[in-house]
């Protein structure tokens, strides 16, 4: 018998995030490989048993989730991830969601591409719908590209909100690798630069979520209660998480690769600089007091991106303790039954989360983080 | 540590319905708010993991189940209910089932309407199929309305069986509220009165299930072993459960509202009068000895309707202990893993249930009951 | 309280297959009826929560799984099996998979036929797609029948690989029983004999998987490391499992019945002869040392077929202890959460399994075995 009775009982009632800093006499070793793998599988099983989406199973929420599932499979090879990936791909008939102009609706294709590239059965995956989406998305005109949209978000470029940099570019990049069509990368880079030039705050080295949060020097510029600019944790998580995905599969000799490497490094260091004491980022990066609790979707994307950077030589190993502290905090937000809590709901700016609040993309961030933490030894 | 070792062990092996009256030294407080919410979520999770239906996911069995899920969401706001509601609505493409003349096949639209009215995303729900069904169901002729059907059930009115009063009227009523089309209410009332006039036993203040169970003064009138009339518990549960749903959303100034209020009060008092000692109704209301065990679908609908009446001022608060006793009995029929047992199988008259017998509509009745018990403090 | 604290703790940590032979002070009685039923339901629940397939939900992997679910329902009558059977049948719209020439793609119809024959609701099942498949499969020409295919597997008969004898014949046989069309049996027999004549090794009384494994007396004949012929455990499991299914529903007076009875008896005795000491067959029947661990899909099919033979008078009762030993081994391969492990992955010849390796058809074999072990008292 591995545990004493007391240990078993304690295990059954291990508390979640909020209590995570309290010491317990018998604690799980959150860096033990078997423990990490087990917590990841439990997260998968819980999420598969609790389907959730914004409007459709193929929308961006599952896009982010199954990107995490794909990366978890890549690291562990556990067939349970591949089974889930294939199951949803076939159920969705390999279709992206419906708005060809909207980056959100192609995010799910990251998982389709992953299955196509990693499942031994030939002619199983159907990537035609993905290719058709990309061709229209990148090459045909639309209201946003044309700049004719009149909304307060100023939707006058293709990727007018920073989340888009996770939704579309990694898919395009992986499609380039799979289909050997490098010309898509150049179009991607053009649109990426538009977003970067508009939303990246050079001084803060963070992304505004959209034009509503970019200061214009007016009295009505949006401010946090402490007077700082609004930098949304998950929003920046989308960007740096997307950068890690991009860099791993982007050709080493791609002419604009250095831009992405530099952007990754700048953001990574800034994110580390503002990491709260307990390891978990708050929903508002520069005003942590407003909702003063760790939030798991943003923190998960950061942990993934930072650990990926260390694992791949883009970030100094000296940051390992900081990244491990983040994972320790994230792991404590998982309920005993597998649910990943403390995930901010669907939104576009900082809002609070709670012990019970979950979303599939939060589980995706958890799996992304775990998949790199496993390699961080 | 909240519990002692003994408490934990006892908790793991807490027995179900049949044993519910045995005292255990450590008992869950079935009226604790967190405990009620937890047992409801466990019921939802178990049912979602064990899909079941008569002939199709959109049939009346899921109709009743997801009505319970909708009401559970209305009371608790727990996103897990809304996730399940949206998931099935999208999977079913917002379609009612196929027989436009059959009240059973529109029951699922209660959940579609609820999502449409309570999910913030605009243009997400598609209520056209519901409207089309209602238009045909209410305004076009069919075999039953025409009275040309020749069967022993005497299917010569639209809603010839009492279950129909749960399946269609609350959907019509909610559609009226949503779409602001009060004229549908008058048609509903016409058909409701047909059923009432035919199946309601003024003396017993209970509904016969269909014409087979209405006494005509003949020797072959159907009798229970004790010589009493056959009044089916779930059948009357459909009616009074439907009445509570109707009254909550029916315009306060609707011209026939008093009829529904009076019918609700008559039935509620009668149901209370015949409540068995242990709180749970038997499948045959006037012959409890025949299958002498509590049955959860009927009891669940009663508990919902009675608690709703107290919560909304239609029933005297003095009945609270009786209603609580019913909930205590129902709660004891839930297995440790979440399954709601002791539900009579699909049928049309009293038949026995068992500890393991479950149905989605039984889980729906459990959720309906819990959603009002939560407010009964 | 039924158990002592120690017993409960031990129960929570009961280990799986690899450790199964270690004695524990508190052991489940794997032959207790309630225990067998409980372990079967847990296997079902786990598998339903972890959908997996090769290429589509209607492919042979689910075909074999739901055949096991159907037989579990036949033995136990537990409605949870029927709910799962109906759910997948409706979700799949009663369609076989798509290749009308391929035996694999009709295997799922065993479950459709079972539902049609055992669900009380009339006109619920749609067997037209099954009939259309069979008509084409049996009566129309194709590349394999024509013998024009040029591959190393020598695909020059309809059922050129031994697995096919599980996939198609039991479905044809059950269709004959259901639709009262005995002429299909004769066509089945013709193709069965082709496979038998080609792949059955009269000396070893086992089936080669396909022509690659039939020795031609050449230097490059495939051999195991110990020099023996390659006889794949699951491959022979498909055949003898299929024989038990066939014999149960084949007309007692069918002219070729004796052939199937004799083949069953020959194989059953040979399988018993080579049973390893711990009860579980290795993936390579004549070279057990190569992957020297029990494998559950083959062993499950054997246990099903052998127990069926004892239960139906085709095998001497003296073999009961051997069959029970096999079930004991299989039961020990089930994880605490219900997963049936130690199942060789999809393949065509002996390869190793592991504690965690699962497949739906492995769960199907487990359910088939359990359904006959329940009757073996």
TrEMBL record, chains A, B, C:
Gene3D superfamilies referenced in this protein's UniProt entry, alphabetically: 1.50.10.10
Region forming the signal peptide: none
Molecular function terms from GO: hydrolase activity
Keywords of the record: Hydrolase
Superkingdom of origin: Bacteria
Biological process per Gene Ontology, one example term: carbohydrate metabolic process
InterPro entries to which the protein is assigned, alphabetical: 6-hairpin_glycosidase_sf, 6hp_glycosidase-like_sf, Glyco_hydro_88, PolySaccharide_Degr_Enz
Positions in coiled-coil regions: none
Name the UniProt record assigns to this protein: Rhamnogalacturonides degradation protein RhiN
């Amino acid at each position: 018998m591995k545990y004493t009775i007391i240990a078993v009982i304690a295990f059954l009632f291990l508390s979640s995030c909020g209590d995570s800093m309290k010491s317990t006499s018998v604690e799980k070793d959150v860096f033990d490989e078997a423990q990490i793998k087990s917590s990841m599988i439990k997260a998968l099983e819980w999420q598969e048993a609790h389907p959730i989406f914004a409007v459709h199973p193929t929308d961006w929420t599952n896009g982010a989730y199954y990107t995490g599932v794909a990366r978890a499979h890549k690291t562990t090879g556990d067939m349970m991830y591949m089974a889930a990936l294939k199951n949803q791909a076939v159920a969705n008939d390999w279709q992206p969601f419906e708005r060809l102009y909207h980056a959100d609706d192609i995010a799910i294709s990251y998982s389709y591409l992953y299955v196509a590239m990693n499942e031994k059965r030939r002619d199983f995956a159907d990537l035609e719908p993905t290719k058709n989406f990309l061709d229209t998305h990148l090459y045909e005109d639309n209201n946003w590209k044309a700049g004719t949209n009149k909304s307060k978000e100023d939707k006058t470029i293709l990727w007018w909100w920073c989340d888009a940099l996770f939704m579309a570019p990694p898919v395009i990049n992986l499609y380039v690798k799979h289909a050997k069509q490098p010309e898509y990368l150049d179009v991607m880079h053009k649109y990426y630069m538009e977003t970067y030039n508009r939303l990246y705050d050079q001084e803060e080295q963070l992304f505004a979520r959209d034009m509503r949060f970019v200061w214009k020097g007016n009295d009505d510029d949006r401010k946090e209660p402490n007077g700082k600019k609004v930098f949304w944790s998950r929003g920046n998580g989308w960007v740096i998480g997307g950068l890690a995905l991009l860099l791993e599969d982007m050709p080493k000799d791609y002419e604009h690769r250095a831009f992405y490497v530099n952007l990754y490094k700048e953001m990574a260091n800034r994110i580390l600089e503002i990491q709260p004491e307990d390891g978990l980022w708050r929903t508002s990066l520069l005003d942590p007091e407003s909702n003063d609790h760790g939030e798991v979707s943003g923190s998960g994307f950061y942990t993934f991106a930072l650990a990926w950077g260390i694992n791949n030589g883009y970030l100094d190993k000296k940051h390992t303790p900081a990244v491990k502290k983040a994972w320790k905090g994230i792991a404590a937000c998982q309920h005993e039954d597998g649910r990943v809590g403390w995930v901010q709901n669907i939104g576009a700016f900082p809002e609070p989360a709670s012990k019970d609040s979950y979303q599939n993309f939060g589980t995706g961030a958890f799996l992304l983080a775990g998949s790199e933490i496993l390699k961080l030894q």
